[in-house]
Amino acid sequence: MGVELASRRGERAVRIGELSRRSGVPVPTIKFYVREGLLASGRLTSPNQASYDAGHERRLRLIRALLDVGGLSLSAIGEVLRVMEDPDQPVHEVMGVAAKRLAPSSGDTSGPELEDAREEVADLVARLGWRTGRVSPGAESLAEVLAALRRAGHGAFIDLLDEYAALAEQVAVVDLDYVSRRVAREDLVESVVVGTVLGEAMFGALRRLAHTEVSARVYEGGAPGAGGAPATAGGDAEAPGA
């Protein structure tokens, strides 16, 4: 486990109050994580005192990031952490578990619209030559989105599916390039989880920023980064109060 590894490196141990100060996680919350098995217990230094090291701090920061930014529940985080700590689990399986916990589900598992959408996803995967099963969490999540688009009267949006898929593959290449720079398994699997969960949140935020910029260019004639300020006939942005 990462906590034990940090201890072997000889990093200075601290008490729970200092761990709380460093990590920004309240002491009662740290104790709760220990009880729930999300965080390893500290090393007992007396009947009522335990010491914690950099491995505990690192784990706390990971838990809070997955919870606050990644939006995972504590039970989902527990499942991901258990897979991370299992040395017999392939890295690819760790990524699959993290992706599964991210995939939303509408709860609808049948119906003609959803069945049609599943066929479309299977056709897309086959067309692209992707090595993923049609029953994977990502495929099922995509099928639910396609069915929802049709119900909302925006089925034409699905015509862009191949373009979105091509861009998604480019993003995946960047993600895995980041992961491949890690050598130690502990660092590797943590990078996989962070890249899968927090990378999803980061890309969503970047997409929203890009939407703001491109919509300003298209609909308001604004220069890049100008927040959509209207241009004058001469091409210069009109100054406020002019």
Low-confidence stretches: 1-9, 227-242
Task: Please outline the major beta sheet.
Answer: 2 strands, antiparallel
- How many strands appear in the DSSP assignment? 2
Helix segment tally:
10
Query: DSSP strand (E) fraction?
Result: under 5%
Structural class: mainly alpha
How would you describe the shape? Answer: elongated
Q: Measured on Cα atoms, how large is the radius of gyration?
A: 23 Å
Helix content: 55-70%
Order of helices and strands: HHHEEHHHHHHH
Q: How many separate domains?
A: 2
Strand order of the largest sheet: 1-2
Average residue-wise pLDDT? 82
Distance between the termini: 64 Å
Please provide a brief summary of the model.
The protein is an all-alpha fold.
General description of the model:
The chain is mainly alpha-helical and 242 residues long. It folds into two domains: 2-68, Orthogonal Bundle (Multidrug-efflux Transporter Regulator, Chain: A, Domain 2), CATH 1.10.1660; 98-220, no CATH class. Helix content is 62%, strand content 3%. It has helices at 2-8, 16-23, 27-35, 54-68, 74-85, 91-102, 112-128, 137-151, 161-180, 185-220; strands at residues 43-46, 49-51. It has a two-stranded antiparallel sheet with strand order 1-2. The longest helix has 36 residues, at 185-220. It starts with a helix and ends in a 22-residue tail after the last helix. Mean pLDDT is 82; it is low at 1-9 and 227-242.
